[in-house]
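Protein modeling request. Please complete all fields; requests missing the sequence field cannot be processed.
Requester role: graduate student
Desired output: 3D structure, token encoding
Chains: 1
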Amino acid sequence: MVEVKPLRASAGDVAAQVIDWRCKRQRPSICGSGRKAKTRSADPLLIQKARRYGVRQLMRASGASQHSVERFLNGEGVHPATRASLEKAIAQLEQQARTIKCD
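Delivered output (103 residues):
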């Protein structure tokens, strides 16, 4: 059961505080942690190289999820570790393509 109690923060201001009886602790009613993620978009040149390959091929080579690969290809923010694994996978796929052409 969640109950909202009005509190007086200062003279004239009324703030709301949420009490969650399931965990018996008080928490502010503001959603979110307020922290920013360390996600960044990849280099446009790298994204262009990655578009030569299919999503599934990138998924298998990097071990990343489909959603992460699609975000990467769309230039949206991706976790640094995921971006690094995709960079490695793209280099590996390019190397495989070069060896196939040479044979």
